């Protein structure tokens, strides 16, 4: 089972044995966040870790790019050549 976060996964680790389900033999449990709780529960919880700093940096860069594009919205032009330049 894949939980949306480690806290929900911890609830699964506590509840599944009451339903006579063995972890990980019967059901495998994975959390998300890799919080400290994942290392201190039993069984120790597998969890997805994400680089939140990198995600934040990418989000900020994306916003800056969108802002910059708004300010650089240049309407295309066409030169009409007439007698003053020919």
From TrEMBL:
A Pfam family matched in the record: Peripla_BP_3
Keywords: DNA-binding, Repressor, Transcription, Transcription regulation
Entry protein name: Substrate-binding domain-containing protein
Domain Transcriptional regulator LacI/GalR-like sensor: 2-85
Any one GO molecular-function label of the UniProt entry: transcription cis-regulatory region binding
């Amino acid at each position: 089972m894949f939980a949306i976060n480690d806290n929900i996964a911890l609830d699964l680790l506590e509840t599944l044995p009451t339903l006579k389900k063995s972890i990980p033999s019967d059901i495998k449990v994975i959390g998300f966040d890799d919080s400290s709780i994942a290392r201190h529960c039993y069984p120790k919880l597998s969890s997805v870790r994400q680089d939140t700093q990198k995600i934040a940096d990418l989000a900020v860069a994306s916003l800056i790019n969108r802002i910059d594009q708004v300010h650089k919205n240049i309407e295309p032009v066409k030169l009409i050549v007439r007698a003053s330049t020919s």
